Automatic annotation (TrEMBL):
Protein name: DNA-binding transcriptional LysR family regulator
HTH lysR-type domain location: 1-59
InterPro entries the UniProt entry points to: LysR_HTH_N (IPR000847), WH-like_DNA-bd_sf (IPR036388), WH_DNA-bd_sf (IPR036390)
A Pfam family that the UniProt record links to this protein: HTH_1
Record carries keyword Transcription regulation: yes
Superkingdom of this protein's organism: Bacteria
Keyword Cell membrane applies: no
Annotated family: Belongs to the LysR transcriptional regulatory family.
Keyword entries, A-Z: DNA-binding, Transcription, Transcription regulation
A GO term, aspect molecular function: transcription cis-regulatory region binding
Length: 304
């Protein structure tokens, strides 16, 4: 039986002193109220109302149970309120801090259409992991190797001057002992300061004879971009980022660095809901969706 519905009818009828008025207050037909109260009496094993009078008067048994019925209704209402609040509670999601404002706003709008209120926290990879570990967010877009990724973003090398070759090879940055020319560097931004990207680039640089200082990790994306915009240095980045900065982008010869992403969450249900329901919007934020980007910042095909 519907215990809460029956208790509600019981309370309303007792307060109004009438089955008809009580049913109207409960917004149910009078026969339904009568059936629910009769079912409740059978369930509890005693009469709640004295039906020998025209007025719906409580029996001693009914008076004793009325406070409990009111408490049950109050608890049911509190539970419904808590459930509504839980449904509307923001889902805190840590995302890469290289995501564009417009793309994040579109992701938030897409989530709202699905009844999900996103609270987005842009942060670099290690901070995203810490936010999830300390339960400051419910989920994060974790940086993972390509073979474990849901979304991948190819990386290459971007420079202020347009390279002549179709790909940039790290050995072209090597200088001889007698060279007085300043050594060109490859700048790694915080988003790519993860072992499966950073270490591969460093190993390749060492294998072709680059000095350790020629593979540098910048403290911030803007700091790395500033170094490249003011020198002949190179930036390890996506084609989309190169387009935003007005740089010329080429694949990195001899290596195919890739950003890999997957949703990590304390609750597997959150991860599945984000990946399935918001996958397209998240892919756009990460730069893993859309047409293939071109190779020149000033040319067609580069998404800005």
């Amino acid at each position: 039986m519907d215990l809460v519905g029956a208790c509600s009818a019981f309370v309303y009828v007792s307060e109004r002193g009438s089955f008809t008025l009580g049913a109207a207050a409960a917004r149910i037909p009078q026969p339904v109220a009568s059936r629910r109260i009769a079912a409740l009496e059978r369930h509890l094993g005693g009469r709640l109302f004295d039906r020998s009078t025209r007025r719906a008067a409580l029996t001693p048994f009914g008076r004793d149970l009325l406070p409990s019925a009111r408490r049950l209704i109050a608890l049911a209402e509190a539970m419904e309120h808590d459930a509504e609040r839980a449904r509307l509670a923001p889902l805190r999601l840590a995302v890469p801090d290289v995501c564009g404002t417009r793309e994040l706003a579109l992701l938030g709008a897409a989530a709202l259409r699905r009844g999900i209120h996103l609270d987005l926290h842009p942060a670099p990879p290690s901070e995203r992991d810490d936010l999830l570990r300390t339960r400051q967010v419910r989920a994060c877009t974790a940086a993972v190797p390509a073979d474990a990724a849901v979304w991948t973003v190819p990386l290459g090398l971007a420079a202020r001057a347009e390279p002549r070759a179709a790909a940039v090879h790290l050995e072209t940055l090597r200088t001889g002992r007698g060279d007085v020319e300043e050594r060109r560097r490859v700048w790694i931004q915080p988003e790519d300061d993860v072992p499966h990207v950073r270490d591969r680039v460093r190993r390749l640089g060492a294998s072709v004879g680059l000095a350790p200082a020629q593979i540098a990790v910048a403290p911030a994306y803007t700091a790395a971009a500033a170094q490249v915009l003011d020198s002949a240095d190179l930036l390890l980045c996506s084609a989309v980022q190169a387009g935003e900065l007005g740089l010329h982008w080429r694949p990195a010869g001899g290596i195919d660095p890739v950003r890999g992403y997957a949703v990590a969450a304390a609750d597997g249900g959150d991860a599945e809901r984000i990946e399935r329901g918001l996958g397209d919007g998240l892919a756009r934020c990460l730069g893993a969706a859309g047409d293939e980007a071109g190779t020149d910042a000033g040319g067609a095909g580069v998404r800005g």
